[in-house]
Amino acid sequence: MTKPEPQDAAINDAARSLIEWWSDAGVEPVAPPPSARVKSASAPERRDTRAPGAPEKLSAPRPQRVAAPSASRTSGGEEDAPRDARRLAAAASTIAELKTAVEGFEGCTLKATAQNTVFARGSMKSGVMIIGEAPGFDEDRQGLPFVGRSGQLLDRMFASIGLDREDIYVTNMLFWRPPKNRDPSQSDLAACMAFVERHIALAQPRILVLAGKTSAQAILNSSEGIMRMRGKWGAYTPAAGDESQAQTIPALPIFHPAFLLRKPDFKRQTWRDLLSLRKRLEEG
Ligand code: URA
Questions:
Q1: Domain span including residue 19
Q2: Does the residue 1 lie in any domain?
Q3: Whole-structure pTM value
Q4: How far is the CA of 145 from the centre of ligand 1 (A)?
Q5: If you measure from the C-alpha of residue 129 to the centroid of ligand 1, how many angstroms do you get, rounded to a whole number?
Q6: 85 is a domain residue
Q7: Handedness of CA 216, 217, 222, 228 (dihedral sign)
Q8: Are 131 and 20 within one domain?
Q9: Residues 75 and 151 occupy one common structural domain
Q10: Residue 215 · residue 222 · CB < 8 Å
């Protein structure tokens, strides 16, 4: 038997993990039409590997401003942190400048125990910006959000509606890993909030996806639980005084992939939420 080429093996792995996701999400396989069952001996057939009802890949390019980063300084204690963050965030006029400002920020106590600042990954090609909670172990090591097990599931979830890893923009409410992955505190969130708001203003997403309770509550200014919030479209209203962004942005809370890893039965609901996202994107 001939060994598969490395790129074929990678495609097989990707296809397998997509099928696994669809199967867990309860998507029923559909038998091919009778005509498709008879293969021509000569002409090789091009197979459609999409799941039934799964859409084609999106392409809605969106420009992103990039400029040289600038240095940033903070003044001091934990109480000053939200104010310092607001000042630094407001001074950033590009995403690259904002990243540099976050990396130089000393107002969040989590930074002292973290190995890396974790800012963002991906692109705004699809117009979808996903906001999670906080970096975990793998993210802290690599300095990138959602690269561990829950990140792999997140990628699979979005691939299932035709959005590649490179086409979505992924970030978190917190830029540093909380020790032992503890829940974010109110002061952690307060210290980082102005950066998150500026991040949204500069990225200009068409749609926000809020993965888990922490980002859903903070971005939609709600105290409802994620069980109630998930799947219901909300609207993010930019912070007062941010003239760069006049309009509200549609925002969809979904279950956090780490929760889905623990409770796979909830993948069915998430599949419905993803289809709702897909529909919204198609509607433009
Ligand atoms: N969970 C999150 O919310 N964010 C990450 O980056 C990783 C895990």
A1: 7-65
A2: no
A3: 0.80
A4: 6
A5: 14
A6: yes
A7: positive
A8: no
A9: yes
A10: no
Q: What is the pLDDT along the chain (284 residues), one digit of tens a residue?
A: 455 565 666 666 666 667 776 777 777 655 444 443 333 333 333 333 333 344 433 333 333 322 333 334 455 567 799 999 999 999 999 999 999 999 999 999 999 999 999 999 999 999 999 999 999 999 999 999 999 999 999 999 999 999 999 999 999 999 999 999 999 999 999 999 999 999 999 999 999 999 999 999 999 999 999 999 999 999 999 977 665 556 899 999 999 999 999 999 999 999 999 999 999 999 98
Pocket probe for ligand 1: among 146, 180, 181, 262, the residue whose CB has the most ligand atoms within 8 Å is 146
Q: Could you give the 3-state DSSP secondary structure of residue 80?
A: coil
Q: How far is CA 184 from CA 63, 119, 139, 202, 215, in A?
A: 33, 16, 16, 24, 11
Q: Is residue 47 assigned to a domain?
A: yes
Pocket test for ligand 1, best of 116, 139, 173 (most atoms within 8 A of CB): 139
Which residues contact ligand 1 via a Cβ below 6 A?
132-136, 139, 145-146, 148, 150-151, 172, 258
> Domain check: are 167 and 273 in the same one?
yes
Q: What are 70's two structure tokens?
A: 């600038």
Q: Are residues 72 and 40 in the same domain?
A: no
Residue 207 and residue 88 in one domain:
yes
